[in-house]
Give the backbone structure.
Amino acid sequence: MRTVDLITKKRDGGELTETEINSLIRGYTEGTIPDYQMSAMAMAIFFRGMTPTERANLTMAMVHSGETIDLSAISGIKVDKHSTGGVGDTTTLVLAPLVASIGVPVAKMSGRGLGHTGGTIDKLESVPGFHVEMDNETFIELVNRNGLAVIGQSDNLTPADKKLYGLRDVTGTVNSIPLIASSIMSKKIASGADAIVLDVKTGDGAFMKEMSEAEELAACMVDIGNRVGRRTVAVLSDMSQPLGNAIGNALEVKEAIDTLKGVGPEDLTDLCLTLGSHMAVLAGVAADKVAARKLLEEAISTGQALEKFKIFLIAQGGDPSVVDAPERLPTAKYRFEVPAKEAGFVATIAAENMGLAAMLLGAGRATKDSTIDLAVGIFLHKKIGDPVQVGESLVTIHANRESIEEVLIRIYESIQISGQRVTPPPLLVGEIK
Ligand code: URA
Ligand code: CA
């Protein structure tokens, strides 16, 4: 099979067979197919798209390009959650203990990654002593014993995706829905998920800014999952403003603790209950979403979810006293209030720009070698639709330096105040299964 024939077939709108896709991905992973041929193929896919069968075959070819995690020693249906990424998204920290407390086994592989704030692991590491270094047996034993554990992502998962993603990044082929969908789904499947709940974000702070694109991506991932025997549900959620109030690592841990106590921000709570309900139904611990939501609400009000979070921290070396004394989390040296310059109603809080402001403070990584400051970040006192008075604080900046000019400029740029009443954007904008 000549690679050039596969490229021309796709270029001319043909459908690649399973054998052809497998040989392409195997050759590329092993290095017998060079980057220039794979670039041409990615571009052909970008313009021609892929059929549902091709997308499913590409996903599984990438799954089988490296190590796959076997979670069969954990009893129950392992449901994983994936978010397409946003600003101040604290859901994993809340969801993992929340669903585990009602009996959904959570075997979470997580990353550090790049972004406005750290990944789930960075956030958890702001709890003194907490670590994710353990072997696979310990990981599985912890999930069986406590119902949840978080481990760092293995470097050996889906090498084909790693290589292809890097290539797409420099060849103008990132933004192809079948390539994005198979990339994301291959990683979830290789990490051992039996079922998958996707949180696909839409709006300014999201990867897919347009609702129609977010919907298409969600439908594509759900279709792939269902075709390869992993029940998959997607929730579409708004990211036109940051989720919750906290953007920053330790600040988000505190926000997650508040949410587990039942006093968290309304949007974050609602999203966690929604995603958690889907997870509970897929895991078979609740008959339907309504019953699931009731169980989750009870887990919060009885303190069962918070208790699970403490057990989880202790099992991974973390100091559980942060739950009752969040001041033990890393704290920034300086706090600055950002007063409103005019009165009215908050009309926009441009999520992406707010994320960049947090990054300027040091909350995120610009490159994979940057170090991140767990203590710094931004806390929003207002969300879209809220009334404000002149001089009232819009946000608190938590900083470890005194000069914050650039950060202030970005924050003022991001937050627009209108003289007219503003209707807040709905958080949950769709569902695909
Ligand atoms: N995230 C991924 O993991 N893969 C993509 O292709 C795009 C976003
Ligand atoms: Ca948040």
Notes: The chain is about 45% helix and 15% strand.
